[in-house]
Task: structure prediction
Amino acid sequence: MTRVRAAAVVVALVLSVPALDAYIKLGTRVGANLVPIRWTAFPIRYFVTNRDVAGVTAPQLQQAVASAFATWDAVPDVSIPSQFVGFTGTAPLSGDGMTVIGFQNRPDLDRVLGSTSFTIDTVTGEVLESDIFLNSLFSWSVAAGGEAGGQDVESIALHELGHLLGLGHSALGETELFGGGRRVLGAEAVMFPIAFAAGNLNRAPRADDIAGLSDVYGGDQFRSSTGSITGRVTKNGGGVLGAHVIAFNPATGKMIGGFSLSADGTFTIGGLEQGLHVVRAEPLDDGEVGSFVDPTQPVDLDFKPAVYSRLVTVPRGGTAPGIEVKVTPK
Amino acid sequence: MKLWFALIALLAMSDRAVAQSRFEIGAGAVWTGGFDAGGLDALETRNPSTGTSPLTLFGTSSDVRPAIGATARAGLFVTPHVEIEGLAEYSRSTLRTAILDDFEEATGTEAANTIVTFVFGGSVLYHFGSGRFVPFVSAGAGYVRQLDEDETISVTGTEVHGGGGIRYRLSRHLSLRADAGVSSRDKAIAFEEKRRVLPVFAAGITYRF
Result:
């Protein structure tokens, strides 16, 4: 999975896998089933390339990566320990048995800040190896408060490590066309595919990120303390494929998203706190469709965003009765 | 004219009829005022290069509409003027969230859920006089339980209430009763937890044994 500085063509160096129901997890198809990809052997042992780039030394990169790992590991009720093994001259490439994180100069990917690739067990979904490269074509910074013109290493590492841990992209963000591409106006997930402009920080996972990670690695505590909403997005009586559905809790301000990933428009949003939620469906029009879901599918973008007429009650440890969010063509 | 005198005499006899029971029951309708339910807007972290304030995906404005329901009471006059009573109340209202200023002009401007409220409590009443019209004041406390329409969320809290009213005696046993007052409740199904003071009006009929 890649993170782009501005839209345009996303060049994927990674295993292309569809997202699963219930958020933004990555998965692999095993027969007729989708299996989430995840690490099962801990700590996650990783190397950092020994290559400096302008403004960032290899030890500084390692510190930023360690900090980003620690941020994900600090998600409540999740344990994903990691271990820095050492510096290496090996490039972050798949298939060498080493998880390597480092800079690479990729002028061919002039809109890609970073990318994550995997080697997985295609039967179990277990991640065997994952590599992250940050594109040294861009200017980078490790300044605590950010640095004008420099992409924040920790912010981008946090996003890429989210992929490494099994998260796909979140669609909780708004963009505008700008300078021949797309520019982020706002985002409520570090897993949104388009980064904030250089010089800005984005180092804190939001509710959507936390729900996604907890769904992959959380235990009984997470499942018993949170609930989910299921339903269908429909247009003219038929299902809508590829709708982004948001559950918003007005009591906490937390937003968590999901996608309708089947032809009948079925969606699931999990990791929700008990309580009343506003549900809103929208088309995937704030980025490349392929950043979120399988672009070969007939994703429907021709509908107006819509708010469901009921406040949906999410039970603790359970699922709200199925709802139907009706949308209309644009 | 004779009939008129006869009616006056009957009512007078009724007035003089003493040895009424100390027990009373009643039932009626109750109206409880609505309130601001609080709540936050749906905000996204702004890309600092495009502005300073958070990006509002959509705003919200939530309120609980006035509730209409039924109430039942049972009272005991411990003196000719002082009564203690227990009450049970059931009402339904709507928690409504208006969607404001959607960033993408989403269709649908409101989301709602039905709230059912039960109140169980007690009051002390002091009655002024003993004629046909009897004003009174009352104060008490109770237990409040609310459920959403799916009975998934329940909130249990306490309330204290105070007010007054008037009785109009129809006969030896029957009276009309109207109450007005306020109820202060510490919890409610809403998006902001705080004590709220709600106006309460009730009207009904009582039967004194």
